[in-house]
Amino acid sequence: MGPRRVLLLGEGNFSFAAALCGASATHVVATCYESEEEAAGRGGAARSIRRLRDSGAEVVFSVDCTKLKEHFVPGEREFDRIYFNFPHCGRKAGVVKNRQLLAGFFHSCAEVLAQHGEVHVALCNGQGGTPADQPRREWHNSWQIVAVAAGAGFVLSEVHPFKAETIDGYKCTGYRSQDKSFCVEGALNHIFTRSTAPLCFTPMSCQTQLGSQKVSFQVPQVLVDKINRGFLEVNSSHPVRTIKEKLSAGLSRAFPLQNISSCLPLLYQGRPGGVCHSNIFWITPSPGEAPGTEEMSQGRADAVLCSHFGQDTDGNGQGGCPAPEQFCLRPSLLPHAQAIMKKGAFSPGTLQVLSGPVFRKCRITPHSMPAFHEMLVVLAVSRGAENSCVQVLVENIQTTMNSLHQGVSGTKPSISLKEAASFGTELSDFAAFERQLGEIQHFLCVGTEPEPPGSCVGVIRAAPGEFKSCELVVVSASLNLDLLAMLLCGISDWRMLWTWDRRFLRQFPEGELRLFKTFSLYPPSYVHDVSFWLPDGQDFDEVAFHTLARRVSGEMVVSIQLRDNFQQPGTGRRSLCYRVTFQSCDRALGCREAAEMQLHLREEIQQHLGVTLR
What we know:
The protein has 3 domains: 4-194, Rossmann fold; 204-286 and 325-506, 2-Layer Sandwich (BirA Bifunctional Protein, domain 2), CATH 3.30.930; 526-613, Alpha-Beta Plaits. The chain has 14 helices and 24 strands. It has helices at residues 15-20, 36-40, 45-54, 95-112, 145-150, 239-252, 293-296, 334-342, 386-409, 429-437, 481-489, 502-505, 542-553, 591-608, and strands at residues 4-9, 26-31, 58-60, 79-85, 113-123, 154-161, 188-194, 204-210, 213-218, 257-259, 267-269, 282-283, 304-307, 327-329, 351-359, 371-382, 415-419, 442-446, 456-464, 472-480, 526-533, 557-567, 574-582, 612-613. Mean pLDDT is 85; it is low at 288-322 and 448-453.
């Protein structure tokens, strides 16, 4: 490996470059926009240039930061780090011109930066327009550096104070194209890295081996990036697997334990009782390959993804009533557990552990997930012993979670058992869906509030089982492993658990749980409104609208808020206006791409939801 190549742009008197040139294993290329004659006239510049050249550094003049590719031959274009301190168009240029300068600069950097390189941009206090600026300028009066960089495929990964006094010999110069210093008090150094490229997922079908038959079905487009990710497999270091294994280990100390997750099919026939059809991803297996009911409740579910070009079955977010022969992607593991009990395959007194991804259509909120990993533990006990069993089960889960949380953050979370009867109708999507699946005795919650968003991480049930003996009662606990991972690792956005950016899993080596440090700070958001007339006499399926927005944006929509519900006098026609907010948690999302998503969304809702745009 050769020396690290460092490119410095817009050097005024070259004092910053001179301070870096002594670093070991570093090759410095220092540049400025002016000619050599103009640059040498600045105070101390000639001395710094001599020092750079004596140390073996390159000094290049008349370099345009927006056309870097033109200044370096192909073999010398890849830089590990690029510095641009206090960029400015010169004279009294306003914020718009300086944004344009930064936009050209970042696009140019994308052509000469190494894959894992960094771009460092120092700005005066307030210019960046991020929460790190104190005080923070109004957005329209800032340089909007994160949004500008996102347009070229960069994310802001770190922000640090720019401490000019710690840089030996450094003297800031070039204010308004003069030999004057910028105000560096409160200045910030913004460190950008390359974002993962936007992912284009082609339509796919999934094959599931069920007994002696293979069932092939098309994956709903909104779930293409979530099927068969293998987060719970043996070789995975993903936090959801670590938490599942830790919980299983803790439970095994209190109960005999059997893991039966490998026998669970991805599909479920019909509709789980009580569940609203609009919350289900309906699937139509390939003709002639739909298994019978009995075969659906057993067999191994080995998912194999393959390319498949055809009609998107329910991928548009429409929630039509299912035909009797239709299947759905499993929304819960509970029906599978009930099917196994009905066949008599459960051993009373042994804790059965089922785990795997489940899929549910839901509204877009910070803690509502169309796919998450469920851990279901089921135990058949003698009638009358269910209360003590629930107590042991919950205490064991609390002990494991407290131990994990203290190991990660040094504090204990408040995990409590709350009576289901004490909850009103305002539930998180996870809790509300679980209530649809059947009667709940207790909610497993985090925190002290009645039901803040995301506080419910599990449910406890106790009900008569499908056994020949009526003396047995089934106690079950369903846990949302994704919500638990967010709680333990300080992850604020559920989408980060599904990121394709390798920087996420690198923070959890060999399954070690740690506090997550985001690699995309202050991601820009883009707000668009859309209004439309509803078809006469028809209700509007809001879940279908949210699901369609997920698909069109590739999960880049973080919020959909109803802004107006208007009924036209005389005709009675209804119009709805929604505010849609686009924002990524892990990759660069520029304003142009967000605008294209909005246009695509408008087309799709008109085509698939039968509305008329206003």
